[in-house]
Amino acid sequence: MRNESMLKFVLTNDDGWDAPGLVALYEAAQGLGSCRVVAPSGPYSGCGHRVTTHEPIAVRVGPEGQQIVDGTPADCARLALHHLVPDVTWFLSGINAGGNLGTDVYHSGTVAAVREGVINGVPGIAFSQYIARGRPLDWPRASRWAGQVLQRLLKMPWEPGTFWNVNLPHAEPGGPDPAIVFCPLDPSPLPLRYQVAGEVSTYSGDYQTRARQPFRDVDVCFGGRISVTLLRLDGLTDKESGHGLVFDGGEAS
Fold first, then answer.
1. DSSP characters for 73-111?
2. CATH code assigned at 103
3. Number of domains in the chain
4. Which candidate, 47, 93, 129, 229, has a CA 20 to 30 Å from the CA of 148?
5. Distance (Å, whole) CA 96 – CA 129
6. CB 112 within 8 A of CB 74
7. Domain range spanning residue 10?
8. H-helix or E-strand spanning residue 180
9. Using one digit for the tens of pLDDT, what is the confidence trace for 24-77?
10. With contact defined as beta carbons under 8 Å apart, do 207 and 218 qualify?
11. Where does the chain have alpha helices with state H?
């Protein structure tokens, strides 16, 4: 791991600069390096890797020095690289309110911000909090878990062209900390169900009952463990993802 005094994190998301998940991520990164927030002015969930190229992008300073961008998560990463934080050493995105598992990574703005950084030679980690029906979100707990994952991943060597996608489980209150599992992406499609009324179609797929292949990220996270998946700009293989590695209490099995 690089010297902590040398690490400069840019924190962003797709839920907006004032989202509680971004506050949780900021707290998780405290003490590991300096943190700068460069985040969208509002929600951009599901925007994928959309970028703004034919319109001006306004940027204003928030009440605590945040850079608030009238653009997408990928725009935030680009502007950080270009002039807002040109000496950034890591991009951290999230913590998204909702999972970004399996094929979600292709439409996720949370993941796109990190991917944009990697395209330009800066490593990054995307964090998401899976939401189970009927349970309140515990952001302090999510922040603690994200901090544990951060400390592990920052110690690992970074291979250019790769980045990490982390999903936190929505565990019952009061339970033990979950194991951290390195696992591959689940390529199963999301349920394609729509309610059609005349010319209007409304998506009605059930995220909770999506297909899940054993030992892949959806199965791991839905099963109550933290899924950590290595993604590559040129594709993903089980071997490169660290398939089957489980970290619990500091040991790998």
1. HHHHHHHIIIIISTT--EEEEEEEES---GGGGGT-HHH
2. 3.40.1210.10
3. 1
4. 47
5. 6
6. yes
7. 4-252
8. strand 180-182
9. 999 999 999 999 999 999 999 989 999 999 999 999 999 999 999 999 999 999
10. no
11. 20-29, 73-79, 109-119, 139-154, 217-222, 238-241
